[in-house]
Structure formats: C-alpha cells, structure tokens
Automatic annotation (TrEMBL):
Keywords from the named record: Cell junction, Cell membrane, Membrane, Signal, Tight junction, Transmembrane, Transmembrane helix
First-listed, main subcellular location of the protein, grouped into a coarse class: other
Family, per entry: Belongs to the claudin family.
Organism of origin: Motacilla alba (White wagtail)
InterPro entries per UniProt: Claudin, Claudin16, Claudin_CS, PMP22/EMP/MP20/Claudin
Gene this chain is encoded by: Cldn16_1
High-level lineage: Eukaryota, Metazoa, Chordata, Craniata, Vertebrata
GO molecular function ontology, one term from the record: structural molecule activity
Designated name of the protein: Claudin
Membrane-spanning ranges: 118-140, 162-187
Cellular component GO terms, alphabetical: bicellular tight junction; plasma membrane
Length: 188
C-alpha cells in the first residue's frame, strides 16, 4: 500500500510540476475577450506579449524590456513566486525519487527513505503554496484592473480574461498540494 501511494504521489507531483513549469514559461496569462471581429488573438504573459492574426495565423511577440527594467508589480511578484515554486517542486521531486521504495538508494534504511518522502511532501507543500499565491495574485490583479476601469467608466476597447497559463499555474499548484498531502498525511 505504501509503495502504491508513493508512486501515485510521485506521478501527481511530476505532472503538477510540469504544469507549473509550463505556466511559468508560456505567455498566455491574460487573453483579450472583447475582440468581437475575431481579427486577432492577444495574450499577455510574464515574459512577453503575443498577438496572433486569426486570418493568416502569423504570430508576433514583443519581449518585455530587460528583467531589470521597471515592470508592473503583478508581473514581478508572479515571476518570483512561480520561479520559486518551480525550484521547490523540482527539489521535492528529486528528494521523492530518492525516497521511493522501488529505488535501491538507502534500501537498508527504510526509516530514512520514509523521512525523505515526508520531507519531499513538506517541500512540495511550500512550492504549491507559492505557486498558488503567484497564480491567484495575477488573476486577482487582472480582475481588479478591469473592475477599476469599469467603475470609472473607462472603456479601452479591450478587456482581458484569465488565460490558459494562469489556469495551468493554479492546476499545477493544486496538484502539488494534493501530492504533498498524500506524502505527509497518508503515508504514515
């Protein structure tokens, strides 16, 4: 039972970590929702903004200025939290691989392997919390920005909704949290 639970938690943690990495690297955290003519599809991400022409499929991306340049707080905070979540999830995966019962590392000391799985669960929990805060921070800031424009009767012709990268970040964080619960609460 313990080995099956470990392998299940490892599979979930691996998939969720991939989701977090994809969310960090992709560029569709916000997508325009007001293009009624469907001439273009515009996505904003943490690293660049891309526009896809719907008629011919040509995609043009504008890189943001240097990382050291002044950026909106939502981009800086989300970048930082997502990168930290990626690093912690990767570290937890490495510890979890070494702690799995099916791996021969430290085979003579099952107590140490169990502690490695528990430690991986704690690290995974920390990474999931950081990733979830980063994803939700960005989503809430998009919503507040839109609400402020609506409350002041300012219409710019475009409003943004949450993009698939934002949802990927939330799903990856939730999956990492579930894997950490499996490793810390259910393994003993």
């Amino acid at each position: 039972m313990s080995a099956a639970l470990q392998v299940t938690a490892f599979g979930l943690a691996l998939l969720s970590t991939l989701f977090l990495l994809l969310a960090t690297c992709t560029d569709c955290w916000m997508v325009n929702a007001d293009d009624s003519l469907e001439v273009s599809h515009k996505c904003r991400g943490l690293w660049r903004e891309c526009v896809t022409n719907m008629q011919d499929g040509v995609r043009t991306c504008d890189q943001y200025d240097s990382i050291l340049a002044d950026h909106p707080v939502k981009i800086v905070v989300t970048r930082t939290l997502m990168i930290m979540a990626d690093l912690l999830a990767g570290l937890a995966l490495a510890a979890l691989v070494l702690g799995l019962d099916c791996i021969t590392f430290l085979k003579e000391d099952p107590c140490a392997k169990l502690k490695m799985c528990y430690g991986a669960g704690v690290i995974l929990c920390a990474g999931s919390i950081l990733g979830f805060i980063g994803s939700v921070w960005y989503a809430v800031d998009v919503y507040v920005e839109r609400a402020m424009l609506v409350s002041h009767n300012i219409f710019l012709g475009v409003h943004y909704d949450f993009g698939w990268s934002c949802w990927l970040g939330m799903a990856g964080s939730t999956g990492c949290f579930v894997a950490s619960v499996l490793l810390t609460c259910c393994l003993y």
